[in-house]
Write a structure and sequence with these properties.
Blueprint lengths: L2 H22 L2 H6 L8 E3 L6 E2 L1 H13 L1 E16 L2 E14 L2 E16 L2 E12 L7
Length: 137
Amino acid sequence: MSSLENQEFEIEQANERFYRAFESLDIHQMESVWATDVPVKCVHPGWDLRSGWPAVRDSWVLVFNHTTGIRFEVTDVDIVVNGDLAWVTCMEHVRMVNNGESQQSRILATNLFLRRPKGWLMVHHHGSPVFSGTADQ
C-alpha cells in the first residue's frame, strides 16, 4: 500500500470512528474523535456555526439529549489529503428517533481532519440536508 493509500485508509477509519461515536450518543466517545486543543467548528443541519471546542461539545450534548437512537449508512465517500489536513465529503443516510418520532433523512457532510500525534482527528463537521435529487446532481 502506498503512503497516500495508507493515509486515505487512516482517514476513512477516522471518519468511520466519528459516525460510530455519533451513533453511540456518548459525549466522551465523540470527544475522542475531535482535536479539542485546536480551533474547531461544527454546523449541524439547520443550526448556526459553532466555533471552539466548548461550543461544539455543547452542540453534541444537545443533539445527544434529544436523540434516543440514530444509525448512519455513509455513501459517496470522497477523501482528499493535503499534508496534515484531509477532508471527506459523503452522503449520510440517517435513521433516527428524535423526541419519540422515527425520522429518515439524507445529509451531505463535509468532515475535516487534522493529523495529530494521536492520529487523524476531526476539526470541522458540516452537515447540510438534502431534500431531493441525488448526490451527483
